[in-house]
Amino acid sequence: MRIKFCNIKMEKVKSEKGFTLLELIFVMVIIGTLSSSLILPFISNLKQATRPEIYNTATYIAVGELEKVRSDGYNGMKTLIGTANTQVTKKGRTYDKERVTEYVTQSAGSFNNSATPTELIRVTVTIANPGISSFSMWELLTDDFYN
């Protein structure tokens, strides 16, 4: 009876189904290879998807600065001739903002810097962020002759 009991137990162990360690390792290697090859393009696409958001925010900052310049006008900007650098943080990202205010003269359709006060002031706003290349926007202010 004892022998029969052992034989039954051995047959039961042989009939149990499952994965061997070799099969599990093989499947894990395949899953690891496939996931690593799929994750890299996903991450790069995610970075590229945030680039338009960074450009839009940078444009928003530059346009806001130029709106302030327009509201101050020529007389308000005369006292701010030179360069001003600041940092702006929007949506957790830091942007470097540079405003260059200078007198310019116009000749043959182009504008040239002038060391002396003229009737035109050019204000250039440059926005930079590590995620994008820097870009500039500018505004010309004219002296109001009716003051």
TrEMBL record:
The chain crosses the membrane at residues 21-43. InterPro entries: N_methyl_site (IPR012902), Pilin-like (IPR045584). SUPFAM superfamilies: Pili subunits. The keyword Electron transport does not apply. Keywords: Membrane, Transmembrane, Transmembrane helix. This is Prepilin-type N-terminal cleavage/methylation domain-containing protein. It comes from Candidatus Scalindua brodae.
